[in-house]
Design a protein that fits this description.
Elements lengths: L4 E5 L6 E5 L4 E5 L2 H7 L4 E7 L3 E4 L3 E3 L2 E3 L6 E2 L1 E2 L3 E5 L15 E3 L15 E2 L32
The structure holds zinc ion (ZN) (2 copies).
Length: 153
C-alpha cells in the first residue's frame, strides 16, 4: 500500500507543500503565541519528520511560525528535524487520520470549548521527550525565561 501523501498551500497559492506518510504527533495549543499568530482561539497542528516534507514558494518566519508574505496565511514551520503543519493549511477537509492526541496550555482554553475526550491535557508544554504518550499533566520540561505564554508544540 502506498504511503499517504497530503498536500497543502497558503490561501493565495504562492506557497505549496506536501507531506508523506504518517505524522509524528497531532496537537492543539491554546497558548498566547498560538492564539495571536493564528488569530483564532487555538492552534491545531500536526508534525512530520523533515524528510517527509517538500515545499515551494517564498515564506517569511517570525519566531517559530512561518507565513506567506503575500496573503499572510500560516504555512509549515521548518525546524531542525521536524516540520509543523497547521492542519487548516492542508487542502482536503476534513483531514483523515489527524486527530489531536494532546492539548497544551489548557488554562487558556476558551470556556465554550471542551477538552478532547481522548487527548492528554497539559497545563503548559508537553513533557520533554514525550511524543504522544506519557504520564501526568502539568509538569514542565524546562524553565522558560520570558515567554511564559508560548509553547513548544
Ligand atoms: Zn499566500
Ligand atoms: Zn502554542
Amino acid at each position: 500500500m502506498p504511503e499517504i501523501a497530503r498536500s497543502g498551500s497558503c490561501l493565495c497559492g504562492g506557497v505549496r507543500f506536501r507531506v508523506v506518510g504518517e505524522s509524528i504527533r497531532v496537537g492543539l495549543c491554546h497558548c498566547k503565541d498560538c492564539r495571536k499568530t493564528s488569530g483564532s482561539a487555538f492552534h491545531a497542528y500536526a508534525v512530520w519528520p523533515l524528510h517527509a516534507f517538500e515545499t515551494s514558494g517564498m515564506t517569511s518566519t517570525y519566531g517559530a511560525r512561518s507565513f506567506c508574505p503575500t496573503c499572510g496565511s500560516r504555512v509549515p514551520f521548518v525546524g531542525e528535524d521536524e516540520v509543523e503543519v497547521t492542519i487548516g493549511s492542508l487542502d482536503v477537509a476534513p483531514t483523515e487520520g489527524l486527530v489531536p492526541s494532546y492539548e497544551l496550555w489548557i488554562g487558556r482554553r476558551e470556556s465554550w470549548l471542551q477538552a478532547l475526550p481522548a487527548a492528554r491535557q497539559f497545563e503548559h508544554d508537553r513533557i520533554a521527550g514525550d511524543s504522544t504518550a506519557g504520564d501526568e499533566t502539568g509538569r514542565e520540561p524546562r524553565r522558560r525565561s520570558a515567554q511564559d505564554n508560548s509553547c513548544r508544540t
